[in-house]
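User: Um, what's this?
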Amino acid sequence: MIRGSSGGCGSDSPIPQQGGSAGPARLDPVQSATKVIFDRVLAATILIVLAPVFLGCVILTSGAEGEPTFASSTRIGRRGVNFRLLSFRASPEQRLGVLLTRLGMDHLPELINVLRGDMSLVGPRPAADRPDIHEGEVPVDCRPGITGLWVLAPRADISGPEAAMLDRRYVDSWSLARDIRILYRTVAAVRYGP
């Protein structure tokens, strides 16, 4: 999951708005199909283009003592269904781990989550596992994203009702052009810093 960065203005301003209808916000069928096709085509293209980088990360992060290359953690997906969020296993105490994290390469396996249908490239922040979650508590009927409107937030620790309003606002005002703008800003933030 990409870290939050400061900045953001105009129509992509992440300031949550009060209000909203009851029940989860959702995309209409055409929007949902468009988003799925865009996500999977772009995720597959990125994995193909970055295949040498991906393979290099696999080799560099494979443990000498047989530790698995990938780490995973439980996250809440669409409609409250849990899934395993993938990342490269990289110790932050090691120079390699710091480099992978700084370049955002530790998140490359999340593209596999996109191809599986667990995630979108852009969407709500994937929440940590809550075994007691009920369907009525899910603010949006949308796959969580590798990046999202929350990346443009002025701080990275948005949580609770504020995060739910931000997720709802993203879905209510969704457009493919906006997803592309968020992806562009995320790449710029990873490359140049906040």
